[in-house]
């Protein structure tokens, strides 16, 4: 794997080429070291206008390409991404501080698999078969590309979040303007470059960097886009929705989460302990589906807390380039301060810090895996998104209480239930309000299945055929099959003929 040296990069990719942008200078910082990874000039609202105009101009031609042609470009993109995997990995590690194992085995191959899935799916987009729902007509459904998609993505999985938003839109025949988080633009810019090399027509995929307040606002509220999709926090998602609503644009929002991790008394305790640590610490806990609220049967509670504390204590925190590292830093120093402040307030609200709660003596934005037991149901650490390597634990009395606690949140993105009882598993999967419920596991995702939440976690789906609903229109075509001038239904208009 190559490493990323601090270079000045163009801040946007518009109409098939890197475009130097005119905004303020910005430094991409490696959170593992504090070193500058790259510098670029932020995009401006004028760059957003140029990107949207390029997308608008390119979209009809792309939509008119045959599904096979669109699939061909996406298959080529997947091949080129695989050929440039080392670049994507190096950039993801440098800009996020991701452990190299995670970038190598999850972020990059997962993104490539997603492109491959949609390359195939592009060819079986279809409306419903024609039928005569009225005796005098044949009805059929046509699906069409919705047009130009504006999308805004977060910093936790920059490449995967870009792929989840961009690729189904491209497969459906849309053109896209994407704004990545300003602290992690590298892999999104590389994705656009590689897509152009794969044969994607100029203007079909455009990237504008820049801050959310400036460029994000301009993009979400742009008059000349058709759909606004967003992955990020619930608060910003609502602002994005409000900006898009000014023009009546369709939105899709993938927002925050506070996933319950319910351990019933018949669970395999070792599996639950192992799963809780993995589910809480993946990507330093900066995962919207991460296990954050362990809700554990009273009989297992003490053993669960002791077991999780012990496994967390052995987690290797350090250099993301070292394949033996388990946990990298948080994505920025500012975010580490936010996580540390939330943890430091937890004991005032009754939480007991079992392990962690400190930053290790390392130069980067690191934070030790943290387990907080006995948290109060109304405490900040239990209710609000921390987005760090922090797991809270509470006990429950019976199954009703467990499921009540699982649903006692405004969020509804993901959840897991740990049990060997098939009826309990069925009940949990039925009654927990979330876009995904895992049974005896927590975190795995696959391209064929949808990802997306309910409640304050947003609406609409990424991945899978379900995501096409965001990017396609539905048109009813109703054809007369009688051939007569005086149609039967005309009697409702012409009384005396
Ligand atoms: P964030 O602060 O909401 O930012 C997300 C994106 O929105 C960034 O590109 C940001 O730009 C931009 N933005 C900020 N203010 C904006 C505004 N007023 N108008 C338009 N865009 C604006 O989220 P984050 O801190 O990057 O990511 C963490 C959050 O994402 C967590 O809440 C997590 O749960 C959520 N997330 C959800 C999913 C899911 O699938 N449901 C997946 C991953 C992450 P700048 O950062 O450049 O200012």
TrEMBL record:
* E.C. number(s) listed in UniProt: 1.2.1.79
Is NAD tagged as a keyword?
yes
Q: Which residues form the Aldehyde dehydrogenase domain?
A: 25-477
Q: Which InterPro entries match?
A: Ald_DH/histidinol_DH, Ald_DH_C, Ald_DH_CS_CYS, Ald_DH_CS_GLU, Ald_DH_N, Aldehyde_DH_dom
Q: Where is the active site?
A: 254
Specify the enzyme's EC class, one word.
Answer: oxidoreductase
Q: What's an example of a GO molecular-function annotation for this chain?
A: succinate-semialdehyde dehydrogenase (NADP+) activity
Tell me which Gene3D superfamilies the record gives.
Answer: Aldehyde Dehydrogenase, Chain A, domain 1 (3.40.605.10), Aldehyde Dehydrogenase, Chain A, domain 2 (3.40.309.10)
Q: Which UniProt keywords apply?
A: NAD, Oxidoreductase
TM helices/strands, residue ranges? none
SUPFAM superfamilies from the UniProt entry: ALDH-like
Catalysed reactions, semicolon-separated = succinate semialdehyde + NADP(+) + H2O = succinate + NADPH + 2 H(+)
Question: What does the similarity note say?
Answer: Belongs to the aldehyde dehydrogenase family.
Q: What is this protein called?
A: Putative succinate-semialdehyde dehydrogenase [NADP(+)] 2
Organism this protein belongs to: Mycobacterium adipatum
| Phylogenetic lineage | Bacteria, Bacillati, Actinomycetota, Actinomycetes, Mycobacteriales
């Amino acid at each position: 794997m190559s490493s990323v040296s601090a270079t000045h990069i163009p801040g946007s990719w518009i109409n098939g080429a890197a475009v130097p942008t005119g905004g303020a200078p910005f430094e991409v910082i490696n959170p593992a070291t504090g070193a500058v990874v790259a510098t670029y000039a932020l995009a401006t609202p004028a760059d957003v206008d140029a990107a949207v105009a390029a997308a608008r101009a390119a979209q009809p031609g792309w939509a008119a390409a045959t599904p096979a042609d669109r699939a061909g470009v996406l298959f080529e993109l997947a091949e080129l991404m695989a050929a440039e995997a080392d670049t994507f990995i190096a950039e993801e590690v440098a800009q996020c501080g991701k452990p190299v194992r995670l970038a190598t085995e999850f972020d990059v191959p997962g993104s490539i698999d997603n492109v491959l899935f949609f390359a195939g799916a592009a060819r079986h987009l279809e409306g419903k078969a024609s039928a005569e729902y009225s005796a005098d007509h044949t009805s059929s459904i046509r699906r069409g590309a919705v047009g130009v998609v504006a999308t805004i993505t977060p910093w936790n999985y920059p490449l995967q979040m870009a792929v989840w938003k961009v690729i189904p839109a491209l497969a459906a025949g849309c053109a896209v303007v994407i704004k990545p988080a300003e602290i992690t633009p590298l892999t999104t810019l590389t994705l656009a470059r590689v897509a152009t090399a794969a044969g994607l027509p100029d203007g079909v995929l455009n990237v504008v960097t820049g801050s959310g307040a400036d460029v994000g606002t301009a993009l979400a509220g742009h008059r000349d886009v058709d759909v606004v999709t967003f992955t990020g926090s619930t608060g910003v998602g609502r602002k994005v929705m409000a900006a898009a609503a000014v023009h009546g644009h369709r939105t899709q929002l993938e927002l925050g989460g506070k996933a319950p991790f319910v351990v019933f008394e018949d669970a395999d305790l070792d599996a639950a302990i192992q799963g809780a640590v993995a589910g809480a610490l993946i990507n330093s806990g900066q995962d919207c589906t991460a296990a954050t609220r362990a809700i554990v049967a009273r009989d297992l509670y003490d053993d669960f807390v002791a077991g999780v504390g012990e496994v967390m204590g052995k987690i290797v925190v350090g250099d993301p380039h070292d394949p033996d590292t388990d946990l990298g830093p948080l994505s920025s120093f500012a975010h580490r301060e936010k996580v540390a402040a939330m943890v430091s307030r937890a004991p005032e609200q009754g939480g007991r810090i079992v392990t962690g709660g400190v930053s290790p003596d390392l130069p980067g934005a690191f934070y030790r895996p943290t387990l907080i037991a006995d948290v109060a149901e109304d405490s900040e650490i239990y209710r609000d998104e921390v987005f760090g390597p922090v797991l809270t634990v509470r006990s429950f009395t019976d199954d009703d209480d467990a499921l009540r606690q699982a649903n006692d949140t405004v969020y509804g993105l993901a959840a897991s239930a740990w049990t060997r009882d098939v009826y309990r598993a069925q009940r949990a999967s039925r009654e927990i309000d979330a876009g995904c419920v895992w049974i005896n596991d927590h975190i795995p995702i696959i391209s064929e299945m949808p990802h997306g939440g309910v409640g304050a976690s947003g609406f609409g789906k990424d991945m899978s055929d379900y995501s096409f609903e965001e990017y396609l229109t539905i048109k009813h075509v109703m054809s007369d099959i009688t051939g007569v001038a005086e149609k039967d239904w005309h009697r409702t208009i012409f009384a005396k003929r």
